[in-house]
Amino acid sequence: MTVTGGVLQAVPALPTAAGTAVRLLARGDDEPPVTLPRDPAREAARRELSKGMYHENDPSWLQRALETFWDWVDDLLGAASTATPGGALGLVAIVVAVLAVVAALWWRLGTPRRRPVTAPALFDDRPRSAAEHRAAAEAHAAQGHWNQAVQERMRAVVRALEERALLDPRPGRTADEAAAEAGRALPAHTDRLRTAARDFDDVTYGGRTASEDTYRGLAALDGDLERAKPALAGTHADARRGAAG
Known about the structure:
Elements: E1 3-4, E2 7-8, H1 16-26, H2 38-49, H3 61-83, H4 87-109, H5 130-142, H6 146-163, H7 175-185, H8 190-204, H9 212-227, H10 233-244
């Protein structure tokens, strides 16, 4: 290593571009300065700076993408707050109001109903008696599982009507079909039967959540139907003939 004019002339360990700069500075005062053309100097600097040693701490592509996204969100919110009366506070108030309306509608209407085109059968493949369905319903009710309790109680209602021969046992019957057929035999309970079938469909296929009141109403209907006497077709005919006479 040599010294000219008190400055180090060459440092082999330095990178190429830095070494070139040092050599230019190392010339004595009695020598004219050496200049490099602009384009070769720029290209040399570009090659030097493109080396991995200078980019070890650069952010990853994911970090850059996230920074770009959040910058966009920040610009968007800034523009919205500028256009909103009250600035940022007004924008926050509007967002909170919209969320409150959505929450209220969701609470009031519940999950949108999605009923299949053809309702599945009321019963599964394993036949059970009305008493078994009632016991299962009460077990679910004791645990607060109101959806399952409503389902089993509706099955108990229909199975009891089949056991009394008020409905023909028919595999594949839906809750709506059972309510319509039972309403013809027990016309005084037609509306309650339709409501029970609708409650069953709501919790089974519509995504609704049953309440204790729903179950208690269905259990009361079950007890009333057990004591109800069917309106036979012959009775209506005799009544009409008696009125005519």
